[in-house]
Amino acid sequence: MTDSLLLIDTANGVRTIRVNRPDKLNALNAATLDALDTAFAEAASDHTVRVVVLTGSGPKAFVAGADISEMNALTPVQGRDFSLRGTRMMRRLEKSPKPVIAMVNGFALGGGLELAMSCHLRIAADSAKVGQPEINLGLIPGFGGTQRLLRLCGRAATLELCLTGAPVGAERALQLGIVNRVVP
Prior knowledge:
By secondary structure, the protein is an alpha/beta fold.
């Protein structure tokens, strides 16, 4: 199935879901969150799917966070609803009865890192950069990222990533336990 926001393919029991907004570095907007939620629900209920692989289109980004241009136009109530929408989708992903593997190519920042951390396994390209830069916008991670990060890498690393907003490379992410493997 091909859709403007996601590219979805199934072969040999592997469902590949590719976020397809490379012109926006695969940034998450409300429509993309909804499309991902539907795609994960469909994969979970499809008996031919044994594993799901999630990645981003283009060479630059897995998902570079939330679509800031869309977020800037939201009222406070709409912002809360956007955050809840992403949180619900990521909870569905975490609870998937089928393993979901994030193939992190390029940037996984903010909501993109939160999405990757919601997956059961994370494999990063050696060129990947991950981080929680929301503090640079006066925000905190909005989809449960602080809790996921804490579970994966502990208090000190969580504070470092969330309070500095600085991204780390793939090898450092591996050392911290954010990703499971780094590949060329």
